[in-house]
Design goal:
277 residues; mainly alpha; MetI-like fold
């Protein structure tokens, strides 16, 4: 028959889901399965290659990761990296918000933002590290400077784009309530442009995280200290390749956790408010 009987369709819909189907319908379970498959492929390829100095097995990298956290100093290196990252990230967000608010309020501010982003947005943040070392010396100030550069421009552009998309009706509501200056930006512009701002924050985080690890790989050589990047560099020099991959796994894990946090914020705000682009 071309069409099934309605009772059959209703019975199929009303059928309770099995445990496997319930688990499969959960996105975290499917993602975990993907990760397990990737780990199996990694293990198989490393065993087939038989060259631990080039590509250790997943089990060796996992053991090294556990040992580095429990008996080593990887945990303290993570704390160092995250502390520097948060300082540069927050400074970049504040400066980006000020630039976007200025660009939204005046034509000169808009021209200023366009000129600055055209000049500096294409410039890789890590390329500024030699200049930062001259200006700020051997210390976290140099890395913080390049992190601010990595965060500032994507967040400013996304925030400005969000501000520009706000309707005149919403703007007039804020003006009618007598909101001006910083209160107008905080209570009207930022909530209305929050989807675009959140996208900018995610992009800024990704740029900052990559820049931090790259800067630590270079900066750690000069300072003799550092975070996860320096941990990777040290173990590469000592030919502890399993520990190198343990550091890379740590970088990936932190990236996945932060991305999940952003998704949670998006679900609790943008999706719930019906503001999804």
């Amino acid at each position: 028959m071309l069409f099934e009987h309605p009772d059959t369709v209703i019975a199929e819909i009303a059928r309770p889901l099995s445990l496997v189907e319930k688990v499969w319908n959960q996105a975290p379970a499917r993602k975990l399965l993907i990760l397990l498959l990737l780990a199996v492929v990694w293990q198989w390829y490393a065993q087939w290659l038989k060259n631990p100095l080039m590509f250790p097995t997943f089990s060796d990298a996992a053991i090294a990761l556990w040992h580095a956290f429990v008996h080593g100093e990887l945990g303290s290196r993570v704390v160092v990296s995250l502390r520097v990252l948060l300082s540069g990230y927050l400074i970049g967000i504040v400066l980006a918000t000020l630039l976007a608010a200025l660009a939204n309020g005046t034509r000169l501010g808009n021209d200023l933002l366009e000129v600055l982003t055209a000049m500096f947005n294409p410039l890789p943040a890590i390329a500024l590290l030699p200049v930062a070392l001259l200006w700020f010396g051997l210390g976290n100030g140099s890395i913080t400077f390049v992190l601010v550069h990595a965060v500032l421009w994507p967040v400013a552009l996304s925030t400005h784009s969000g501000f520009a998309s706000i309707s005149n009706t919403i703007r007039m509501v804020g003006r009618n309530y007598g909101l001006t200056g910083f209160r107008y930006v905080l209570q009207i512009l930022i909530p209305a442009a929050f989807p675009a701002i959140l996208t900018g924050l995610k992009n800024g985080w990704a740029f900052a995280w990559r820049t931090l690890i790259a800067a630590e790989l270079v900066f750690g050589v000069s300072s003799g200290s550092g975070g996860i990047g320096w941990f990777i560099y040290e173990n590469k020099n000592q030919l502890e390749i399993a520990y190198v991959f343990a550091g890379l796994l740590t970088v990936i894990a932190i990236g996945v956790v932060v991305d999940s946090l952003f998704r949670l914020v998006e679900q609790r705000t943008v999706n719930r408010w019906g503001m999804k682009f």
